[in-house]
């Protein structure tokens, strides 16, 4: 049953934490109704028009963020150094930070489509929220290789570091398994593409905000996440923000997150998009040298 009269609290939860991170066709690719907005809306408990309005708002936010980036002199200078001719297929593979409708990948998509001459990119968002590296590895063929990408961006590892409330003495995925999963992802993809992988380090978390948030049955400890970041920062290819300081140099700033202290806000995603562009420009400069 759909609900049309939402309280302010309900609207906020659905708009921030449900709709941006739920795309039916990603979770159930064989479902006949996977591309039916009415089916998706019914599962969420909203009307089709409400879901469409939420998604349109997120898209507008991402586009506006891209336009703000393109006002920065540094970003304009970086555009000329990017290793693209405008015809590439670019796949982003990972978890919530990619699936988010107003996430950094959508911001980057607008930046490139607006700024690259004769742009005819094929952008593929293969992010599924809360995916661990194990979850992602299972769908690597279906969601990455099948698209025959020229470039692959990888944002994984955050949800490996979960400590479930019912079992707080261990991380959901052992660090050794995280290392092995990411190594396999790297091996499989690099056998298929010529360009270097682009790795996005996990954003830090604000543990205090997580603990206060009722939507999660887990917490993520900064020390656990730092270990994952070290693995990713040691990879070959482009490493986005290897010290994971883009959300605040001394400590993560609350305004870069949603209220759960875990998922980036629009300003947090803007920081990541900026760092991705810097990393891509570095790759482009090396390619031309």
How would you characterize this protein structure?
This protein is of the alpha/beta class. It has helices at 8-18, 24-27, 37-44, 48-69, 73-79, 96-99, 104-115, 133-138, 140-143, 175-190, 207-212, 222-233, 266-288, and strands spanning 89-94, 122-127, 151-155, 162-164, 198-200, 218-220, 238-240. The chain has a 5-stranded parallel β-sheet with strand order 2-1-3-5-7. A two-stranded antiparallel ribbon has the order 4-6.
Tell me the structural class.
Answer: alpha/beta
Largest sheet: 5 strands, parallel
SSE order: HHHHHEHHEHHEEHEHEHEH
Shape: globular
Determine the strand fraction and express it as a percent band.
5-15%
On the 0 to 100 scale, the average pLDDT is 93
Count of structural domains = 1
How many strand units?
7
Q: Tell me the Rg in angstroms.
A: 19 Å
* Terminal residue distance: 60 Å
């Amino acid at each position: 049953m759909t609900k049309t009269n939402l309280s302010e609290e309900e609207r906020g939860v659905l708009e921030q934490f449900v709709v941006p991170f739920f795309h039916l066709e990603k979770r159930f690719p064989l479902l006949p109704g996977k591309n039916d907005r009415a089916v998706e809306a019914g599962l969420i408990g909203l009307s089709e028009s409400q879901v469409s309005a939420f998604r349109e708002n997120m898209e507008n936010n991402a586009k506006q963020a891209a336009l703000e980036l393109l006002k920065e002199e540094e970003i304009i200078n970086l555009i000329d150094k990017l290793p693209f001719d405008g015809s590439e297929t670019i796949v982003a593979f990972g978890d919530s930070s990619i699936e988010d409708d107003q996430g950094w990948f959508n911001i980057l998509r607008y930046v490139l489509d607006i700024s690259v001459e004769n742009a005819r990119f094929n952008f593929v968002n293969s992010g599924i929220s809360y995916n661990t590296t194990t979850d992602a590895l299972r769908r690597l063929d279906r969601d990455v290789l099948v698209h025959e990408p020229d470039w692959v961006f990888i944002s994984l590892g955050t949800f490996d570091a979960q400590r479930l409330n019912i079992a707080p003495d261990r991380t959901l995925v052992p660090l050794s398994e995280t290392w092995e999963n990411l190594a396999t992802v790297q091996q499989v993809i690099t056998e298929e593409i010529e360009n270097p992988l682009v790795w996005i380090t996990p954003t830090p978390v604000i543990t205090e905000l997580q603990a206060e948030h009722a939507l999660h049955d887990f917490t993520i400890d900064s020390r656990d996440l730092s270990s994952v970041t070290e693995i990713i920062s040691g990879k070959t290819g482009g490493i986005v923000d290897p010290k994971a300081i883009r959300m605040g140099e001394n400590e993560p700033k609350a305004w870069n997150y949603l209220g759960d202290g875990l998922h980036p806000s629009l300003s947090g995603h803007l920081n990541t998009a900026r760092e991705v562009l810097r990393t891509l420009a570095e790759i482009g400069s090396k390619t031309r040298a």
